[in-house]
């Protein structure tokens, strides 16, 4: 029986300081958005690593998932393996051995709030980008491909696949660069 910690922050600039989980046997951490469970390597590694009778500790519900379906799916996967999960901030524990209707209601409400918060953040971000574009301040993500270099390599006889490998980019990026 292991105590497993999972911590997540949304950006590389953030740190895990406020997510004190106490003493754990194994810790999984990642610095990326919680918008989708499938694109989170540490979460997936933790789900693979845990065994029956283990306990996963997470600081708060929104650190595990920002989507209610993802949240319920992750908890179900853990419980199906005989693993319990505890959220410290909300003081909620879910295990296959207990059937607490009130805890499930709280989880669904908190998960819905986390999803709502994520949607509000996305809306504000889109509004901010639109205003910055209108003022000419937002140029989008900086270009990482030198179109001139791609065209030079193509004129020298290299194919798209060879150019992509040479520059460490995808073939689709090569074709897009050649069109510009």
From TrEMBL:
InterPro entries (UniProt xref): Homeodomain-like_sf (IPR009057), Resolv_N (IPR006119), Resolvase-like_N_sf (IPR036162), Resolvase_HTH_dom (IPR006120), SSR_resolvase (IPR050639)
Gene3D superfamilies for the chain: Homeodomain-like, Resolvase, N-terminal catalytic domain
PROSITE patterns: RECOMBINASES_3 (PS51736)
SMART domains tied to this protein: Resolvase
One Pfam family named in its UniProt record: HTH_7
Residue stretches making up the Resolvase/invertase-type recombinase catalytic domain: 2-136
Coiled coil: none
Family: Belongs to the site-specific recombinase resolvase family.
Protein's name according to its UniProt entry: Site-specific DNA recombinase
Organism per entry: Sulfitobacter litoralis
Organism placement in taxonomy: Bacteria, Pseudomonadati, Pseudomonadota, Alphaproteobacteria, Rhodobacterales
């Amino acid at each position: 029986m292991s105590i497993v910690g999972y911590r997540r922050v949304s950006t590389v600039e953030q740190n895990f300081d406020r997510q004190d989980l106490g003493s754990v046997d194994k810790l999984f951490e990642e610095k990326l958005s919680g918008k989708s469970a499938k694109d989170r390597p540490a979460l997936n590694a933790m789900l693979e690593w845990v065994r029956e009778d283990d306990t996963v500790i997470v600081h708060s519900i929104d650190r595990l998932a920002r989507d209610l379906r993802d949240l319920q799916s992750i908890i179900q996967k853990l419980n199906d393996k005989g693993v319990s999960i505890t959220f410290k901030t909300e003081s909620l524990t879910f295990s296959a051995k207990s059937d607490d209707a009130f805890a499930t209601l709280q989880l669904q409400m908190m998960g819905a709030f986390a999803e709502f918060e994520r949607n509000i953040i996305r809306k504000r971000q889109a509004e901010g980008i639109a205003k910055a574009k209108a003022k000419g301040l937002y140029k989008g993500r900086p270009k990482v491909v030198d179109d001139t270099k791609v065209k030079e390599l193509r004129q020298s006889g290299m194919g798209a696949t060879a150019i992509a490998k040479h520059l460490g980019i995808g073939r689709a990026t090569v074709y897009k660069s050649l069109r510009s």
